[in-house]
Amino acid sequence: MSDQQSTIAAIATPAGRGGVGIVRISGPNALQMLQQVSTCKADMPARTAILTRWMDAQGEVLDHGLALYFSAPHSYTGEDVVELQGHGSPVLLRGLLEALYAAGCKPADPGEFTRRAVENGKIDLSQAEAVAACIDAATLRAGKQAQRQLEGAFGQHIELLMQRLTGLVAHLEASLDFPEDEIPDLFFEQMCEQMQQEVMIPIESLLSTAVLGERLFDGAVVAIVGAPNVGKSSLLNALCGRDRAIVSDIPGTTRDVLEIDFEVHGIPVRLADTAGLRISDDVIEQEGVRRAELAAAQADVTIHVADASRPETWGMAHNIDLCVMNKIDLQHDNIPERFIPLSVKKDADLSLLRDALAVQLGDSNLADDGLLVTRERHRHILQQALAHLQTGLAYIGHESHMDLSAMEWRRAWSLLGSILGIGDVEYILDRVFSEFCVGK
Ligand SMILES: Nc1nc2c(ncn2[C@@H]2O[C@H](COP(=O)(O)OP(=O)(O)O)[C@@H](O)[C@H]2O)c(=O)[nH]1
Ligand SMILES: [Mg+2]
């Protein structure tokens, strides 16, 4: 539990210089702290921007700018909150922070503002995680998904499943008090059917989005492999739209693994170009080949590039996810179906390859994202909850085991609740907020 009696302060804007820098204060004495360090008066109105000056502990002016006051509970944290917006000078912001500490503020822990928002019931834990996800999002698509979760859509869906589960558990528990022959034959059958349709299938369909959802935020590593001189480096340059890798007609040009970040349909991808796979006497090239093989083994997706004019480059010993037949400008007959045909040099239309890559990365529905499971934490919980629901289902109808069903289902309910931060979740909060930045 964060110590909510204290008033905390932190710089909310990123480290370094910038146009504007913001210091945030939250807690019961926020307004008093503001008065101590600035020219603001005690009757400062809430939700109004006031131009003010703030001073260091010796009374010397540090900066001037806007003061905003949000009175509890109508604020981000649910407590009294003050924001001071001054110049984005790291030294002056630091000076203000020191003045606030001298006045009695405590330094905020990473994510403490958001943690207080959760503890005060302003947002649920999945929304708090979405705050971090939205800040960390590497692509616009990921950012939009984080926004959706921040607005509460994911949490509301979980809440709905919990409500249905509560209804079913209550129904089952009520039946435990009746003698068996008074319960209609279809009662348990219908209950199982309802449990599956209304709770388990929705959880399964949520889980089916996890590969894409997690990739959207964690990214994926894609390795390009193949024989020397087939056009691997040309493909990397074309895919990322920059002239990054050296392209030449001399086999064995690429030796180190060259990595570049780009995105495919809004999924962050680290693309690795590698040395051409062949037997070589050159020790440096041998090392390049070893690294290429390692990169392929570690990648989430491997793209094998072959040269249409050289059939000896078409075969591949490794586990390959996608096959590209390059240089079809030179030769385009008898190309096996598993290859995506293209010519990087002559007509670099990479849309087919991009789409195929997106599918490999879990993006089978290129239209609307809807709700996605974007965190390992959520996926684990949903998997566990589903397992308990299944176990509970198996006990149903066995007279002596019915209370076990209810127990399993209640366990699933608590698990779902831990997604939202409901229940005894102190350790979960500690873990979730340890990943936050200070000032958020
Ligand atoms: N004709 C033709 N040549 C290509 C094509 N793509 C790449 N090349 C040429 O093939 C040679 C090897 O390319 P590079 O990208 O360095 O291959 P890597 O060794 O697999 O990385 C270079 O001379 C490229 O210009 C293509 O689609 N058609
Ligand atoms: Mg190369």
Short description:
With 440 residues, the chain is an alpha/beta fold. Helix content is 43%, strand content 17%.
Characterise this structure.
The chain is α/β, with parallel strands linked by helices and 440 residues long. It has 3 domains: 8-123, 2-Layer Sandwich (Gyrase A, domain 2); 130-209 and 373-420, Up-down Bundle (Four Helix Bundle (Hemerythrin (Met), subunit A)), CATH 1.20.120; 219-360, Rossmann fold. Helices cover 43% and strands 17% of the residues. The chain contains 14 helices and 12 strands. A 6-stranded mixed β-sheet has the order 3-4-5-2-1-6, covered by helices on one side. The protein has a 6-stranded mixed β-sheet with strand order 8-9-7-10-11-12, sandwiched between helices. A hairpin with a 2-residue loop joins β8 and β9. α7 runs antiparallel to α12 (376-395). The longest helix has 24 residues, at 153-176. The chain is flat and about 80 Å long. The mean pLDDT is 90. Magnesium ion binds next to α9.
Q: Tell me the major beta sheet.
A: 6 strands, mixed
**Number of contiguous helices:** 14
CATH superfamily of the largest domain: P-loop containing nucleotide triphosphate hydrolases
Radius of gyration from the alpha-carbon trace, in angstroms = 29 Å
β-strand number: 12
Layout of SSEs?
Layout: E1 8-11, E2 18-26, H1 30-37, E3 49-55, E4 61-70, E5 81-88, H2 90-103, E6 106-107, H3 112-119, H4 125-136, H5 140-150, H6 153-176, H7 186-207, H8 210-218, E7 220-226, H9 232-240, E8 258-264, E9 267-273, H10 283-298, E10 301-307, E11 322-326, E12 339-341, H11 351-360, H12 376-395, H13 402-420, H14 426-433
The structure holds guanosine-5'-diphosphate and magnesium ion.
